[in-house]
Amino acid sequence: MSAATHAAASRGPASLPAGDVGSRRVLVVDDSAVARAVIARTLEASGRFVVAGSVANATAALEFLARERVDAVLLDIQMPGVDGLTALPDLLAATDARVLIVSAAAGEGAVATVQALALGAADTLVKPSSGDSSARFGEQLLEKLDRLGQPANPVLPSPAPVPAPLRLSERLASAALAARDNFDVIAIGASTGGIHALSGMLRALPASVTQPILITQHLPASFMPYFAAQLTLIAGRPCEVAVDRLRMRPGRMIVAPGDAHLRCVRLADGGGAVRLSSELVTSGCLPSVDPMFASVASAFESRVLAIVLSGMGRDGAEGARVVHAAGGCVVVQDQPSSTVWGMPGAVAALGLADAVLAPEAIGRLLAGGRRP
């Protein structure tokens, strides 16, 4: 190990040097001194990031965050004592920074990866093994940190004063929805932070809600079988990954595969079926929330409840406009409970939201806001 590498590996929490005022501050949490040194060298060589702290365990990380501000936390999972997954909720509570899991256990489709995302991690990255390219790892690390550096809760322009639905309490929102007809389908869109929000919403969803539930969550295809299995356990209702022409059934959830848009069509008997497509869409997402919302509005018109949870960007906003125009109902997650208020915030700024609530409140609303 070079002298510079050894110094980077052994350093403790540090204050941001005056010359790096424009750089984003990163806390590295990893029990491996070598891994900390490699990550520090990559970050500081970029000129865009500075290692504000480098610690070997979760306890030291919490102590550091109690006195220092950072923009991002890089967290290993496999550490002695308190492991990264156990520590993640406390770390998220201690900082507004985004947490990127960097671990050998964070492969695509791995149980630990989906658990981390469900607990609120913003993204994951596999730590390279001895035979892997460290240069490629460095490129991926910087790319993910750049993406996470986009404003989590951007100030979105609104052409009019904040619409009345944004000020509705849960009780008033429930009464407003109760005045509408019953819904035939519930469609949910989410991205960064959405797994955690979706879990909270589904746990609050009672068995009395029997409409088919369609879900588009931005995740790679390899995650989807485990993701569907987790949702089955959380919601206490069946969930399956969409395949073309799959029939929509009462009380069942269908999630979009990671490599296709989930659309639906109306059947002659009044029910619905799933259709998959992979065309380019404005948001650039695959799967995208927009085509799902647009298709349910086309198939079921005003009898649609569309929900937008935490996520970066604007995916879902154009689809929500179609649902709104068809007379359907649109509910979005509120800003305080969102990891990223980009997607729900975009819908709210356009004045398309009938209610803006925390995930658990949305779950309760689905039971109380339906006409018998």
TrEMBL record:
A Pfam family per the record: Response_reg
EC number(s) on file: 3.1.1.61
Residue positions where 4-aspartylphosphate is found in the record: 76
PROSITE patterns: CHEB, RESPONSE_REGULATORY
Domain CheB-type methylesterase, first and last residues per copy: 179-363
Gene3D superfamilies: 3.40.50.2300, Methylesterase CheB, C-terminal domain
Entry-linked CDD domains: CheB_Rec (cd16432), REC_CheB-like (cd17541)
Lineage top rank: taxon: Bacteria
Keywords: Chemotaxis, Hydrolase, Phosphoprotein
Membrane spanning residue stretches: none
Reaction it catalyzes: [protein]-L-glutamate 5-O-methyl ester + H2O = L-glutamyl-[protein] + methanol + H(+)
SUPFAM superfamilies: CheY-like, Methylesterase CheB, C-terminal domain
Residues of the Response regulatory domain: 25-142
Record bears the keyword Phosphoprotein: yes
Enzyme class, broadest EC rank: hydrolase
Molecular function GO labels: phosphorelay response regulator activity; protein-glutamate methylesterase activity
Gene Ontology cellular component annotations, sorted alphabetically: cytoplasm
Catalytic residues identified in the record: 191, 218, 315
Name of the protein: protein-glutamate methylesterase
Organism ancestry: Bacteria, Pseudomonadati, Pseudomonadota, Alphaproteobacteria, Sphingomonadales
